[in-house]
Write a structure and sequence with these properties.
Number of helices: 2
Strand content: 35-45%
Low-confidence stretches: none
Shape: globular
Radius of gyration: 16 Å
CATH superfamily: Nucleoside Triphosphate Pyrophosphohydrolase
Number of strands: 9
CATH topology: Nucleoside Triphosphate Pyrophosphohydrolase
Order of helices and strands: EEEEHEEEHEE
Helix content: 10-25%
Length: 167
């Protein structure tokens, strides 16, 4: 099928693709603590990730972002969740969440923030990005190699984040 027949129309719903990676080492999970001057999630803990570049597939983007932000390669990647974020506009976010392990213990931090390992059992006590307290337990409860989670994020009339997990 030629590109012109792909059905790309300006009035259709569009998503901006992003990737998010949660690497583990034993019972610890790697977080990046947002730089204090960061516009979004300053001083909050998040996974490693970012935008998918033009011409890049989702897995390659996850690997690239992980390498850029940690200085090491991502191994044993598994697609853990596909999240659609409804922003209330004609453009939303498609977030692809991966789990994996770093190829080495030595990590090199980036300008994005400070890299920190934390025990999974203690994540409730961390100042996490707002969706992670609900998302992470479900991501790590999945069976290894199992089907990814399908999640819909949207904002209610008070502009508060709501999360629906498809069963």
């Amino acid at each position: 099928m030629p590109a012109k027949d792909q059905g790309v129309f300006q009035d259709r719903y569009t998503i901006i693709p992003r990737v998010l990676v949660f690497a583990t080492r034993g019972d610890d999970i790697l977080f990046i603590k947002g730089h204090p001057n960061k516009r979004l999630w300053a001083n909050l803990y998040n996974g490693i990730g970012g935008h998918v570049e033009k011409g890049e597939d989702i897995l390659s983007a996850a690997r690239r972002e992980f390498l850029e932000e940690t200085g090491t390669e991502l191994l044993d990647e598994s697609l853990a969740a596909i999240v659609t974020v409804d922003t209330g506009e004609n453009i939303g976010i498609g977030m692809y969440v991966f789990t994996g392990t770093p190829s080495q213990d030595q990590l090199t931090p980036s300008v994005e923030g400070k890299l920190e390992w934390h025990p999974m059992a203690n994540i409730e006590s961390l100042p996490l990005v707002e969706d992670l307290p609900r998302l992470l337990p479900k991501v790590f409860a999945r069976k290894p190699g199992g089907q990814p989670l399908y999640v819909h994020y949207f904002y209610n009339s008070s502009d508060e984040l709501e999360m629906e997990f498809t069963k």
